[in-house]
Predict the 3D structure of the following.
Amino acid sequence: MKQSQITFWCHEIIRSQAPTDGFYIDATMGKGNDTLFLCELAGENGYVLAFDIQEEAVCVTKELLERKECVDRVRLIRDGHEHMDQYVEEKTADVICFNLGYLPGGDHRIATKADTSVAAIEKGLKILKNGGMMSLCIYSGGDTGYEEKERILEYLKDLPAKEYTVIANEYYNRKNDPPMPVFIFKR
């Protein structure tokens, strides 16, 4: 069942909330699937920025976007997501998407970390337009540990309710540390 996959579900929530032809950020490019989704959402008039620290992620994503003929509406940036504020002005993005953990099929020692992810989320919230949204797919356990998940949830719990709505979901009947989809809506 496709609808039970975390990325499918996050994409559907984003699609239901995001304006077409907008400005979107993929904070963790990985293999490019979220970047491709955002490029399709952007259409001919929108734009996407995508970040990753690994050259492999940039190359794989570029190849995917070239095959799908949407490389002209994206800028791929080899840099950590915690530096996105160096590339984007505040209150400009409609959607920011995070898929935390490690590159699928890549080196599990290279993964997102609590410090940089919380910093990136904090900067991303400033970059979001009023009415914008952020999607977080949080993977924990095994290779990625629990610290990142716990620190992110602790940070999000203290966001002012008058400015943000935070919805943290969980796969209630799955074992072995299933991923957690979280959505943040900026008022």
